[in-house]
Amino acid sequence: MKLKKLLISAGIFAIFAMALVGCGNTKPAEDNQKEIKIGATAGPHAEVVEAVAKEAKKQGINVKVVEFTDYITPDKALASGDIDLDSYQHLPFLQNFNKQNNSDLVPITNTILMRMGIYSDKVHDIKDIPKGGIVAIPNDPTNGGRGLMLLQKAGVIKLKDGVGFKATASDIAENPKNLQFKELEAAQLPRSLADVDAAVITMNYVMSAGLDVNKQGIFLEAKDEPLAVMVLAARNKDKDNATYKKIAEIFHSAAVKQFIADKYKGTIVPAE
Question: Which among 118, 96, 110 has a CA at the least distance from the CA of 202?
């Protein structure tokens, strides 16, 4: 009888001990939160993600910024699962990557705006570009066409129907002011402002040259221009991940918006 009681007591103790072990392995969700790796190109994109990571930490989300020096590797790393998210590109670029690589990456939020603009040291309004004036544009096919499209939206020229962002100077159908177009390497455009009436410049070179958007910018791309809106991308299977959604929200937080305003002073602004 005593042996039976001892066996029962031992069994109860074993069960109780197992329960204690089980309780000991239960941790708060944030303690088990894995490190979220976000890829970004060095410079503004990585800097903004660092600001997001700082805010995410306050919410118990551990974000690591993985910097890249080119525009292809981040999406490849995301597609392969080496990183969890990336933030450095616009939607057309992402869509082209998917097409070229048979991948399934999707945007989960807009992040920042990097708008191409028309700049001048000689006039303060797009309408004041003089007849016969010289306008400098990028000489690479992608940004050259984008620049011509911007000049069309500004009402300076009219392009042939359907040319879109593939436009070249030969596609100009109407040029009422008989403007001359000077094609230059994108990096040289800020320096050309002393010699031309206006220049079409991408935001990265506006920033590196220290141009003042408010003083020298006379016409900017719209805030909903696809090539100006940068996105946070994820694998399609992860688009509804709750943690990733929280990170997407942090990009639009007051703290991150303030960081962007203080750091970039209008060259880069938050996307909506």
Answer: 118
